Amino acid sequence: MPRTAAAPELLTVAQAASLLKVSDKTIRRWIDAEQIPFLRLPSGSYRIPQGALLASLGGTYDLAAELAALDARSAGISEDDVRRALDEGS
Amino acid sequence: MPLVVVDTSISLPATLSPTGLTRKFWVLLAYGALAYREEHLRLELDAIEAEAGDDGAIGGRDAIESLIGVAARRRAALAELLPPDAPAGWVAAGSGYLFDEYERKAIDVGPRLGRAIDREEAARLRRQLQAICVAGPEPFAPTDAPALTRDPADDPIVYTALRVGADLLISDDRDIVPDRDAGTQPYQHADSSILAITFGQLVDEHLHDVDWSAIHGDLLFEAHRQLPD
Description:
heterodimer, A: 90 residues, mainly alpha, Multidrug-efflux Transporter Regulator, Chain: A, Domain 2, 56% helix, B: 229 residues, alpha/beta, 6-stranded mixed beta sheet, 12% strand
């Protein structure tokens, strides 16, 4: 079954941090601020739905500003340039 | 609603070049992610509520409601700018390995494009990939991936697509789709199967009706733009 919203993958704090390559502390900060949805188990550990975690990036970062900065640095680079550069490295 | 995994041979041209067909496809994936989140994100809340039972506690309900509202507004804004026939049903999935591989290759390829990509910029690029993904498989170690391709480094990519139950793995990597004439390569493992397809074949077979000339790469901004409530 696809691991989509109807059956989301529930991640531990460590798995969520690894997926986004941020620290456990960052994930816990987002949990404390309720910036991301989470389930707190009776044991005190947390589970975070993966799809919602990925969606929340649009709230925790200014992706439009980041894209603008990235594209400004990539001006003049064609997709064929990128393909050639990838081929040269393989 | 086709669920796809996009490997670095497509995601890097799409994100490192503001122009080109792969960026236009990226706009469609961002559009698809917004439509998907608007329609399905609440199901994730239902799922954790079911998992919580009587003893667990749910947090971040307002965050989900906010994300749904934001997705709806961004999708509507993007719909105004896309051609009427632009498909909203293409959505992407990714895994930790896929994101790590993307980031590693972005840093590696940068100097050959005449621009160094440091770790901070690579992290920003990684977020551009993650932000258009709506789902992912159960986390796995790369060593868990069975031998499926000619290049062991590609096996976890194919395994990502298999584990997440994707419909297609889009790749121009010759180790993943060796037969360039056919443009496709089936993979199977256990009870899962996936069709890997080149980007050209994808466009010819599945997206030939799209008016690409009316889709501009900078529309990706609209998928992320901060909008008033």
